[in-house]
Design brief:
- By secondary structure, the chain is of the alpha/beta class.
- Helices cover 27% and strands 18% of the residues.
- The strands form 3 sheets. The protein has an 8-stranded mixed sheet with strand order 2-1-3-4-5-6-9-10, with helices on both faces. It has a 4-stranded parallel sheet with strand order 11-12-13-14, sandwiched between helices. A two-stranded antiparallel sheet has the order 7-8.
- It is globular and about 60 Å long.
C-alpha cells in the first residue's frame, strides 16, 4: 500500500463555522471527513498563517518538508492542504524546490472554496482526490500538481480564477494535465511542463512585484530597490510591454545587479528568453529578463529561487533553462 504524507495547514478546507466544535479541524479529522482511499496516510498538522498572509518562510518550510518526505523519509507521495489565496505560489515554489525528489512520488496541493461544515463543502472530495493522485504511479515525476474538483493542474500553470466555485483553478492557456476519475483512477491527458532547473543556494525572499500602468513613475522601481528588494518583477501589458519611461531605470537596475523580470498581465505561452521585436517585450532590449510565459505571481516565485544562484547574469541563465 502506498505511503502518503499529509501536511495540513488549516485554512478554509479545515474551518468549521457552525458545529460548535474547535474552529479548525486537525489533519486526522480531515482524513475522517474525506474517507481515506486505499492509502497508508501519515498526517502532520503544520502551523501556518492564513493563506492571504502566508510568509515566504512558511512557503519555503513547506517546500522543504515535501522534498525531505520524498528524498529521505521514503514516502510515495505528499499532499498539502492549503488556503486558496496563495496556494499557487506555494505549490510552484515547492515544484522548484523539490527538484529530483519529484521522481520518487507524487506531490499534490489541494484546498477548498467552502468551509468544512458547509453543506456544499468541497474539501473532503478534494482531499480524497488529492490523496489518490499523490499515491498513483502515474503522477510520479510530474512535479507538483494542484487538485480541485478532480482536475489536475501542473503547478507551473495553475492560477486561481474563482474563489467560490469547485473548479477554482485553471491552467489556461495550457491544457488540463489530467483528472481523478470517480472510480479512483488517475488519467494524465496532456504533456506536463519540463522539469525546472535545479534550485541552487538560498532563495531570496525580498522580491518586489509591481503592476505597471500608463503614466507609472520610475520612482516606484527605485523605491523598491532602496527598500532592499533584491529583484523586481514587472507586470506588463498583454504583449509584455511596459511604458518607455521605465527603460532607463530598468537599465540602471540591471547595472546595479538587481534583476528585472518582465511578465504579462495576460495569460501567455512561453517565449524565447530575450525574444523582442517591434511591439513585443521591448524592455528586454535594455536588460529586462523575460518571464517565459509565467504569470506575474509565478515569475516572482521563480525569481526568488533564481536569485539563490547569483545576480543578473545567473538569473538570466537560470530563466533561460526554465
Amino acid at each position: 500500500m502506498p505511503r502518503v504524507l499529509l501536511l495540513a495547514t488549516g485554512d478554509t478546507i479545515a474551518y468549521r463555522q457552525h458545529s460548535g466544535r474547535p474552529a479548525i479541524a486537525t489533519a486526522a479529522e480531515l482524513l475522517v471527513a474525506a474517507g481515506v482511499p486505499a492509502v497508508d496516510v501519515r498526517a502532520e498538522d503544520v502551523m501556518a498563517e492564513p493563506s492571504w498572509d502566508t510568509s515566504p518562510a512558511t512557503m519555503l518550510s513547506l517546500a522543504r518538508r515535501v522534498r525531505t518526505a520524498l528524498a529521505d523519509d521514503g514516502f510515495d507521495g505528499v499532499v498539502v492542504t492549503h488556503g486558496i489565496d496563495t496556494l499557487e505560489e506555494t505549490a510552484f515554489l515547492t515544484d522548484l524546490i523539490v527538484g529530483r525528489a519529484a521522481a520518487r512520488g507524487g506531490v499534490v496541493f489541494t484546498g477548498a472554496a467552502h468551509c468544512l461544515d458547509e453543506p456544499a463543502s468541497d474539501g473532503p472530495g478534494n482531499l480524497a482526490s488529492a490523496l489518490t493522485a499523490a499515491a498513483h504511479p502515474t503522477t510520479r515525476g510530474l512535479g507538483t500538481l494542484v487538485c480541485f474538483n478532480r482536475e489536475l493542474h501542473a503547478a507551473r500553470w495553475a492560477t486561481l480564477t474563482d474563489t467560490t466555485e469547485p473548479s477554482a483553478f485553471s491552467s489556461a492557456p495550457h491544457p488540463l494535465l489530467g483528472r481523478v476519475t470517480p472510480t479512483g483512477d488517475v488519467t494524465i491527458t496532456a504533456t506536463p511542463p519540463a522539469r525546472p532547473p535545479q534550485a541552487e543556494g538560498m532563495p531570496e525572499s525580498d522580491v518586489a512585484l509591481i503592476k505597471t500602468y500608463p503614466g507609472i513613475t520610475p520612482a516606484l522601481l527605485t523605491t523598491a530597490a532602496d527598500a532592499g528588494a533584491r529583484g523586481i518583477v514587472l507586470e506588463g501589458t498583454g504583449a509584455g510591454n511596459v511604458p518607455v519611461e521605465l527603460f532607463t531605470t530598468i537599465s540602471e537596475l540591471t547595472e546595479w545587479d538587481i534583476p528585472v523580470v518582465l511578465a504579462s498581465r495576460a495569460r501567455t505561452h512561453p517565449t524565447a528568453l530575450d525574444h523582442a521585436h517591434e511591439g513585443t517585450g521591448l524592455a528586454t532590449k535594455v536588460g529586462a529578463i523575460s518571464a517565459r510565459g509565467l504569470t506575474p505571481a509565478h515569475a516572482r516565485i521563480a525569481l526568488m529561487v533564481a536569485l539563490g544562484s547569483g545576480g543578473v547574469a545567473a538569473v538570466r541563465e537560470w530563466f533561460g533553462r526554465l
